Amino acid sequence: MKIIDGKGKFLGIINLIDLLVLIIVAVLVIAVGYRLVSARMNAGGGSPLDEEKDVYVTLYASLVVPEVAQSLHPGDKLVANNAFTDAEIVSISRKKADYVSADKDGNPVLSQHPLWDDVRIVIKDKVNPASVILKVANQECRVGNPFIVKTPTVETNCRVRSISYEEPENPAMTMEDKEKEIEKNIEEAQAQADAAEKEAAPQAEPQQEEQPQQQWQSDEQDWSSEGEWQGEQEW
Description:
Number of helices: 3
Structural class: alpha+beta
Strand content: 25-35%
Number of strands: 10
Largest sheet: 6 strands, antiparallel
Order of helices and strands: EEHEHEEEEEEEH
């Protein structure tokens, strides 16, 4: 049996030109499908064959009302575009908010706000490490970037503090270390300001001791308060 018969048909079934057209169409369909799958699995342009891994993102929300931390719980799913995402909260820690004020002399003073809190949140999501753009909860994630923590009941603005592919062992310890670092920096700045002020102050001249006035007393004469002569006269 001939592959192409006398009528130009492939195996006597389809015309050779029609076969070439079908092959081209099939190649185009495969290429478009590959691009769609690649774009969906890796928005940054990486290979769809790369393995996804868990990523842990540490967020920091400063000077927020206490109800924010009270309303967030480990296991809560984050929301984006009116739908739940794969990102979830792993841990939450909070303390009284730190802020730097100035005393009457203009020196920096570390204080704690009586009402507001600082909140540290660790979230987990699956990403492709080979991706150029990491997206967590459908948001571009970079250290220093703003990040919105949004659940069905809470929404607050945060900053990305760290990105890691290993779960933090002790989230509270990191916050304590940061507090100690801030206090140390403020103490050093205060000491430098005091030293500069002491050097700039003029040195006071030593004061001379006042000599006590000598009081002369007469054994023979005395004056009363009215100015009358009270002494005895000898002629």
